[in-house]
Specification:
Blueprint: H1 2-39, E1 49-54, H2 58-70, E2 77-82, E3 87-89, H3 94-97, E4 108-110, E5 123-126, E6 130-133, E7 137-140, E8 146-148, E9 151-154, E10 158-159, H4 173-189, E11 192-196, H5 200-212, E12 217-222, H6 233-246, E13 249-252, E14 256-260, E15 265-268, E16 273-275, E17 278-281, E18 286-287, E19 306-307, E20 322-324, E21 329-330, H7 338-356, E22 374-377, E23 382-388, E24 393-399, H8 407-413, H9 422-426, H10 428-433
Parallel strand pairs: 1-2, 1-9, 2-5, 9-20, 11-12, 11-17, 12-13, 19-21
Antiparallel strand pairs: 3-4, 6-7, 7-8, 10-18, 14-15, 15-16, 22-23, 23-24
Helix pairs in contact: 2-7, 5-6
Length: about 450
């Protein structure tokens, strides 16, 4: 009992710390805006020193937001964001939207909302992909443009080869929506669905599919002794009970060694062969660190993460102006998510603001167990929230009433009104042609 009381105390302390950090950043941004209104600011053409951010998911977008709003009005620096996706992709809802129809547009949030309030000329947004990085510049893939940098932030995150249900692997919203709709139709038309991987994505997509289509045979294959094996025993037990309650067939301590897509048969290490109609791979996530392979190959760890110093500068003394954060960074975060990525981004942003002012980076990143809080859906109408510090854990079961989960909240936090998107208006003819109108 005392241990759980201690957990509550830690959560309260962490929450107060987060609120204070947000207030401090907001106050700083307000002061910069006031200074700009009083004394004017440098235009984009005079801001010739670039702070280049590669990737704009939770971590990269956060760095851009903080730095652009913290640069003094007459600073020669500007933020340059390089991001290939047309929209921010809210990956947490992807497993749900691979099963439930009519919400897929909600996973793609317009960029720009969180940059509101940044003074004119403080940032530039480039929709492109990085082809190469050297010690002074970034070369873009599509345009061929070479962008010099004074500071560089690698926030490329993690990816999966097979894409959905874990990642979209498409840069355009409409294309991503079509991929989600393809998954929905695949599940809908199948009698037997095989899901590989017993992490959050695998558990959620399996329970959603079985809850929506109870007559279907849903099989979840996981190589470990328990699903959600990176978390506490309480969550492992809750996840297993959720799967069993719905009737998902669970195969543990076995793995797929061959998938024959033509005959639709998977072979397990145990020798068992399973015929299926639809196959969903939720395993194989890896950090996307290849972008610095030429710049600093020794900074890439054996796991593919980018080695870092406590200040989140990369672990290469010859490159003190290069930082990294989010899923690609080797921070030893037990369960990386948007909270840990956002905290890392704040450290990176504040260190860059200091360095741009000629000061030594002094902010350091330390893992906080509270960052590992996870909300796991177990079917369409229920979920469990887990938090633990490695000694004790707390579980909160709850009912879910919104099929789109926390999509609206994420849109709001990204500075956008749910679910208004000019892109959808501009592409309405294509949406109608594909017979894929979505509800507003």
């Amino acid at each position: 009992m005392l241990e759980k009381a201690g957990l509550y105390t830690k959560v309260v302390g962490y929450t107060l710390y987060v609120i204070w950090a947000e207030l401090r950043l907001a106050l700083g941004a307000a002061i910069i805006r006031r200074q700009a209104s009083w004394f004017g600011s440098l235009g984009a053409e005079k801001r010739t020193r670039n702070i280049v951010i590669v990737g704009a998911s939770f971590a990269g977008y956060r760095v851009a937001q903080i730095v652009a709003k913290a640069l003094p009005p007459r600073s020669p620096y500007r933020v340059v964001v390089i991001e290939p996706n047309s929209h921010f992709q809210f990956t947490w809802v992807l497993p749900r939207f691979c099963v439930v129809q009519g919400h897929e547009h909600k996973a793609f949030i317009p960029y720009g909302g969180n940059m509101k309030g940044a003074i004119e000329g403080s940032y530039r947004w480039v929709k492109d992909k990085v082809a190469n990085i050297d010690r002074t510049a970034v070369k873009l893939q599509d345009s061929g443009e070479v962008i010099p940098y004074e500071f560089l932030v690698i926030a490329t995150g993690a990816g999966v080869k097979d894409g959905l249900p874990s990642r979209v692997n498409a840069t355009d919203k409409l294309e991503g929506m079509k991929l989600l709709q393809g998954m929905q139709k695949g599940v809908e038309s199948a009698n037997t669905v095989v899901v590989v991987g017993g992490g959050a994505a695998g558990v959620e997509v399996a329970t959603d599919a079985k809850a929506l289509y109870p007559e279907k045979h849903i099989i979840l294959v996981h190589s470990r002794p328990a699903v959600m094996h990176r978390f506490g025993r309480g969550l492992q037990k809750a996840a297993r009970e959720g799967l069993e309650r719905l009737g998902v067939e669970l195969i543990l301590e076995d793995r797929v060694v061959d998938e024959d897509a033509s005959s639709k048969v998977v072979t397990l290490k145990s020798g068992r062969k399973i015929s299926y109609d639809f196959y969903m791979n939720c395993a194989g996530q890896r950090p996307l660190s290849d972008v610095i392979a030429n710049l600093s190959p020794n900074s890439i760890s054996s796991t593919g993460h980018i080695k870092v110093k406590p200040t989140l500068q990369i672990d290469d003394d010859s490159l003190p102006n290069v930082y990294t954060c989010g899923d690609v960074a080797d921070t030893k975060t037990p369960n990386p998510n948007s909270r840990s990525g956002t905290r890392q981004a704040t450290v990176v942003a504040e260190n860059i603001v200091l360095a741009a002012a000629g000061k030594k980076p002094r902010h350091i990143y330390k893992n906080q167990w509270v960052d590992g809080i996870i909300k796991l859906t177990l079917g369409l109408d229920r979920s469990v929230t887990h938090l633990g510090d490695g000694i004790s854990e707390l579980l909160f079961s709850s009912k879910e009433t919104d099929e789109a989960l926390m999509s609206a909240m994420c849109w709001s936090r990204m500075g956008e009104k749910p679910f208004e998107d000019k892109y959808m208006d501009d592409h309405s003819a294509e949406v109608e042609a594909d017979s894929s109108k979505v509800p507003v």
